[in-house]
Amino acid sequence: MRRSLIAVVVFAVCAVAYAELPAPEQAAIDRISAESLRANLSYLASDELEGRGTPSHGLDLAADYIAAQFQRAGLDSAAGGSYFQAANFDEATVNMEGFQLVLMSGGQGIKVSRDDVRVRSLAGLDLTSAPVLKLPGNGAIPPIAGKVVAGDERRYGTETFLNELQARKPALILIVGKTIDIPRRRDTFLDEADGNHAPVIRIRRSEAAALLSDGGDMAVTLHLAKPALKEAVLRNVAALLKGSDPALRNQYLLVTAHYDHLGKSPRGIFNGANDNASGTVSVIEIARALAALNPHPKRSILFMTVFGEEEGLLGSYYYAEHPLVPLKDTVANINLEQMGRTDEKSGKRILAFTFTGPSYSNLPEIVGSAAKAEGISTWKLKDADSYFDRSDNYAFALRGVVAHTIAVAAEYSDYHALGDKWEKIDYANMAKVDRGVAAGIVAIADNPEPPKWSNATAAAVYRDAGR
Predict the structure, then answer these.
(1) Is 209:183 a contact under the CB 8 Å cutoff?
(2) What is the DSSP annotation of 193-228?
(3) Which of 226, 250, 274 delimits the end of a domain?
(4) Cα angle value 174/176/180 (rounded, 5°)
(5) Residue 84 belongs to a domain
(6) Which end of the chain is more exposed for a tag (fewer CB within 10 A), N or C?
(7) Cα separation, 134 vs 104, whole angstroms
(8) What mean pLDDT comes out for the span 199-223?
(9) What is the chain's Cα-based Rg?
(10) What string of DSSP letters covers 63-90?
(11) 10 Å Cβ neighbour count for 382?
């Protein structure tokens, strides 16, 4: 799970009651096994996979293993006869040799040090006194296609607004904020090879930020060397459980988890057992259980594990740009994160899970009500709406799909640490919680009425995206 913040707005949704499942569906869900979860997770979080960094040999081993489990369960391949949605990325190593950046406005010039910037560009750049369009601090964004633009970090630094800017095809994006101590620069980054994204330079220099608010015209002089590029093929792993109802089978419920983690360092291997091998094996196990149903649930269910969440939701953003089934026919996304640990920072969490962004739609009520019949309750994460953009559900929500992340422990010891080992997972509890989640999945798949966004103010950007 990644870390960032958006606004919090509380909204109460109407409760939806669900009766106990029919016997065949209950029998299928009861097949979810703690032993099976342990077997899968102990492999995915083993040292052999070296932390499943993106990209890495360990990540490839994980993808192959997940696909084999989907095939063994009898699920259909979802990507044109394959279980893999392959994505071509460039792994770029930034070259700051000879870097120069000067901002000019109102007769003032500010030279920005290489230590005050973070760069994402697949190309070298050379500009001399190029005009810069200053973006407004609020209100509508003007036409920016083909232009160099500069915006305040407080508004445009979030993924939501950065995506909005990228969609408008500027030539270069400068995100400017006040001086801070920037952590040590990462020398490499990943970007979609054919994504045609504008270069982004984040500047943290108070004098540069002050230029945005003066009345003068801004210009930039820039030299940035071309990075070294290495091709990387990354894979989402996707399997389909076809729906049984003629009227609903061409609608889809998307069930996801990210299967990558942080890889390794000189200090050791970041095994990522809870984050997020636990969500990955939960997707596998729920898929295996529901595949045994005859007939299948009414709607089709696409089970998918995605790459590169820890690098910026790369796999989920890629899928949102290149969906295997139409997004307009995708009624919801349930994303599973950190399902195995019960030592939540706020207190022990047994037989319970929580939602991110619970005020944004009625999906939490639907799934929570169905899970309750399985003896699983929901707990309210403090500032739960502020977690909404921290995992892969966010990429789908930005396209209008009702999407939430479910977790057992949102904050826990060993988060992004070397101690996140498979031996610390509570497999018995995870199996029971997964049965509750599976009941919620069946409830959505079988209900003629799909989940809907709420009227919460903070949900408006996602609600409007689906129109």
Answers:
(1) no
(2) TT--PPPEEEEE-HHHHHHHHSSSPEEEEEEEPPPE
(3) 226
(4) 135
(5) yes
(6) C
(7) 12
(8) 93
(9) 23
(10) HHHHHHHHHHTTPEE-SSSSSEEEEEEE
(11) 12
Tokens representing 319 are 């899928």
Q: How far is CA 9 from the centre of its chain?
A: 21
Instruction: Please report the pLDDT score of residue 19 as a whole number.
Output: 58
Q: Are residues 244 and 384 in the same domain?
A: yes
Same domain, 133 and 279: no
Give percent of the chain with pLDDT exceeding 70: 95
pTM: predicted TM-score of the whole model, two decimal places: 0.90
Q: Does 441 lie in the same domain as 296?
A: yes
* Contact by Cβ (8 Å): 336, 405: yes
Where does a domain end: 209, 226, 243? 226
Tally the domains of the chain.
Answer: 2
Contacts of 19 (CB under 8 A, 6+ apart): 373
Which is nearest to 48 in space by CA: 62, 68, 35? 62
CA distance 381 to 65: 33
C-alpha span between 305 and 316 (Å, rounded): 9
Domain of residue 194: give its range: 95-226
- C-beta neighbour count of 124 within 10 angstroms: 12
Q: Is the pLDDT of residue 17 over 60?
A: no
